[in-house]
Design a protein that fits this description.
This protein has 261 residues and is α/β, with parallel strands linked by helices. 20% of the residues lie in helices and 11% in strands. The chain has helices spanning 2-22, 37-40, 201-204, 220-224, 229-245; strands spanning 24-26, 48-50, 71-73, 94-96, 117-119, 140-142, 163-165, 186-188, 210-212, 259-260. Helix 3 links the parallel strand 8 and strand 9 (210-212). It is elongated, with a radius of gyration of 21 Å.
Length: 261
């Protein structure tokens, strides 16, 4: 028994030493119900933390000790809320919370000014905080499969946004500020209740190549009458021509992925 105990201690010490040297903590499918203290004790050493597919109910306030954390992956747990001091993770670039039970994001989300990718699909969100507009480096926003009724006007201040995925929600219309997103390439709003989009969207969003609106009460004729439709069509066709020239496989939607209704 003494030998086994010694080996377990050595194994644990070795694991912590590896985490400290690599900065990567990966504990997927480990049946965890709480954040391990030995991980939180590593503090500034942790850069990536992946606790996918565990049984975590909450994120502890002590997570703020991980001041150099860049990637936080907590998908497929049973987390219901996030701590307000989450905003102290000033180095965070990627946060993935897909498949949890989060119903609201704290206002402090806006303090994560380096955040580039935020994915929180398959939760219970009914909205997003106005402070999301402070995320000027955000490139991807995925809030699909929630209960969101509208996107905040401040989203137009996320100037780096290239992709918005908001499928399977209850969105009826988009804020006019979306027209400010000059780098936006893809807008996916399948299975919502969208009746109209800002009239200048196609004209102002000069990088837009893909709009997907399956399962919404809106028609192709609506788009064809919008200012900038022909320019938009040109961009999305060039995108697919380039993919074909590069021998990139195209899915079953094929060349209809421009305005996909």
């Amino acid at each position: 028994m003494g030998c086994c105990t010694s080996k377990n201690v050595d194994s644990e010490a070795g694991r912590v030493a590896r985490w400290r040297s690599t900065g990567i903590v990966a504990l997927r499918d480990s049946k965890l119900k709480a954040f391990p203290d030995e991980v939180l004790d590593l503090e500034s050493s942790v850069r990536t933390l992946d606790l996918t597919r565990n049984k975590l109910v909450e994120v502890p306030v002590e997570i703020s000790k991980l001041i150099n954390l860049q990637r936080l992956i907590l998908a497929e747990n049973i987390i219901e809320r996030l701590p307000m001091n989450l905003g102290k993770l000033q180095s965070l670039k990627v946060m993935i919370l897909d498949g949890n039970r989060v119903s609201a994001l704290p206002d402090e989300l806006g303090q994560l000014v380096k955040l580039e990718r935020l994915s929180i699909s398959g939760n219970s969100l009914i909205g997003l905080p106005e402070t999301i507009g402070s995320l000027r480096n955000l490139v991807l926003l995925n809030v699909s499969n929630n209960k969101i009724k509208h996107l905040p006007e401040s989203i137009g201040c996320c100037f780096s946004l290239e992709e918005i995925q908001a499928n399977e929600n209850s969105i009826e219309e988009l804020p006019s500020s979306v027209c400010n997103l000059v780098h936006l390439k893809s807008l996916c709003l399948d299975n919502n209740s969208v009746k109209q989009i800002p009239p200048n969207l196609l004209k102002e969003c000069k990088s837009l190549q893909n709009i997907s609106l399956h399962g919404n009460p809106i028609s192709m004729e609506y788009f064809q009458q919008m200012d900038g439709f022909q320019e938009f069509e040109g961009r999305r066709k060039r995108k697919f021509d380039k993919q074909i020239d590069s021998n990139v496989m195209i899915g079953s939607k094929g060349l209809d992925e421009g305005v996909d209704l």
